[in-house]
Amino acid sequence: MLFPAAIISAALLSIVSAAPQRRAPAQVITSCTVPNTAALTFDDGPWVYAYDVSKSLVAAGAKGTFFLNGDNFECIYSDTNVKRVKYLHDKGHQLASHTWGHRNLTLLNWNQIHDEMWRVEEALIRIAGVQPAFMRPPFGAYNDLVREASGVRGQKIAIWDLDTGDTVGATPAESKARYDQAISQKPATIHSLAHETKWESVSNILPYAIQKLQASGYRLVTLAECLGEQPYQWTQAPGVKDPATWKC
Ligand SMILES: [Zn+2]
């Protein structure tokens, strides 16, 4: 029996349009939601100042969130970086994805975006046994394709609501003033962006921010905690370095 062409093409169309099953784009997080919390986040590591950031936070009873790259300042699989990542995780800080090579994801195609996302996730699973639930795109740059890729990967996109400006020319005095200005507005929460790769951010701005925020009544917690969410999609036992495969 023959079907009229119009019916066949309508049937085909419904199959074709149903086939890709586009996933919901990732939610974009800007601010925390749990009142009186502040999330201090640090991008672009792991790098030499990771220990100093952690020590300042831990000494104040605080936790931070590290958006890590795979191959930015130094390969994440170097012996020194493997130690730093494990250390941060052991101290209770949150590990999150800043993607592999700090590329602008909005200039990449679907497969390239997934490659940038997957390679650092693989590294964090291998080194610390964690599959991050949050991804911060380099430069804060994302588009619909990036949101969709993040959604497929079960992640949320984390931006911020207070930029210290530490990598875009702000002096330490200006970065501190940004904290002062934000706190003076008495927001319920604060979610700040800084970089663990800048010594002034670690040695000068961070101690100031910790003191100011705590004096103003904020609890300094991880991004996941300030949202009332889990930091990781799942966890497993960390791996042991295999020089043949753990490389950039
Ligand atoms: Zn960055």
TrEMBL record:
Pfam family, one: Polysacc_deac_1
Keyword Hydrolase recorded: yes
Cofactor(s) listed: Co(2+)
The keyword Nucleotide-binding is assigned to this record: no
Signal peptide segment: 1-18
UniProt-listed InterPro entries: Glyco_hydro/deAcase_b/a-brl, NODB_dom
Subcellular location: Cell membrane
GO molecular function (one): hydrolase activity, acting on carbon-nitrogen (but not peptide) bonds
Xref: CDD domains: CE4_ClCDA_like
Protein's membrane topology: Lipid-anchor; GPI-anchor
Keyword tags: Carbohydrate metabolism, Cell membrane, Cell wall biogenesis/degradation, Glycoprotein, GPI-anchor, Hydrolase, Lipoprotein, Membrane, Metal-binding, Signal
GO terms under biological process: carbohydrate metabolic process; cell wall organization
Annotated ranges, domain NodB homology: 36-221
GO cellular component, one term: side of membrane
PANTHER family assigned: CHITIN DEACETYLASE (PTHR46471), CHITIN DEACETYLASE-RELATED (PTHR46471:SF2)
Protein's name according to its UniProt entry: Carbohydrate esterase family 4 protein
UniProt organism field: Pterulicium gracile
